Structure to design on (253 residues):
């Protein structure tokens, strides 16, 4: 851990611009998990969400300050329906956000006012989405590469999926911690659960930790994928886990 990071964990703060709300802010309340901490004083976004917002702004030519501004026909799909990032993007006219509420609901259904989508079986038509945003979602799916294929199908040619996942860049093969076998959950390693806004008391199971295998399989699906290793303290982005993937749907030849 760098001197800067040690200082933040010990109670230090950063001053800068938040890439989520686009305003001057103080980033504080960092802890040992730098990736999941460091609240923005304006919108309460954490480090990880600022990372995704930073890459989104960079690739669509948006300044790192001010509100997000996209053409009205540019379709954004975000895989969460809460938090400051969602609130900022929800001002856009062609914006969709969803949660997963369980297999009993059809894709695209509204559940208590929120859209239900299974990333492994999306309701969107082919070639309709401009960008898909997911932040630590795909590791919680039994078949994440089916989800990647569905996202590829729904994206327009040249559209991109900007996402984060737990990633081990020192390993080739994904670490499969659990799987569904004939509909039955099978644990291959001790269970790990991440926090889940929909089930804060239970958390959500981690099926997989991704590795270099992911980049190969995304290429086979039809994505050109880049890994961005970020260190942008002036935007509240620090720490060894500041990794964001940008998977672009390759236009058909």
């Amino acid at each position: 851990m760098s001197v800067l990071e040690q200082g933040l964990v010990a109670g230090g703060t950063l001053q800068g611009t938040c890439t989520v709300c686009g305003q001057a802010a103080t980033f504080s309340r960092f802890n040992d998990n730098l990736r999941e901490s460091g609240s923005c004083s304006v919108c309460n976004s954490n480090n990880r969400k600022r990372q995704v917002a930073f890459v989104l702004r960079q690739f669509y030519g948006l300044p790192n300050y001010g509100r997000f501004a996209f053409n009205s026909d540019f379709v954004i799909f975000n895989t969460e329906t809460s938090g400051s990032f969602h609130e900022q993007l929800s001002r856009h006219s062609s914006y969709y956000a969803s949660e997963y509420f369980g297999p009993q609901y059809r894709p695209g259904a509204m559940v208590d006012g929120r859209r239900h989508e299974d990333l492994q079986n999306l309701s969107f038509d082919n070639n309709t989405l401009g960008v898909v945003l997911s932040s630590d979602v795909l590791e919680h799916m039994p078949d994440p590469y089916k989800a990647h294929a569905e996202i590829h199908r729904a994206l327009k040619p040249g559209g991109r999926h900007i996402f984060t996942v737990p990633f081990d860049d020192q390993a080739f093969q994904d670490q499969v911690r659990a799987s569904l076998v004939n509909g039955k959950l099978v644990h291959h390693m001790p269970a790990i659960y991440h926090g889940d806004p929909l089930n804060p008391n239970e958390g959500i199971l981690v099926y997989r930790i991704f590795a270099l295998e992911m980049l190969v399989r995304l290429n086979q699906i039809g994505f050109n994928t880049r890994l961005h290793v970020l260190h942008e303290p002036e935007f509240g982005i620090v720490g060894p886990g500041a990794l964001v993937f940008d998977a672009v749907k390759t236009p058909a030849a």
In short: The radius of gyration is 18 Å. The helical segments are 3-9, 47-59, 84-89, 144-154, 213-221. The longest strand covers residues 155-164. Residues 47-59 form the longest helix (13 residues).
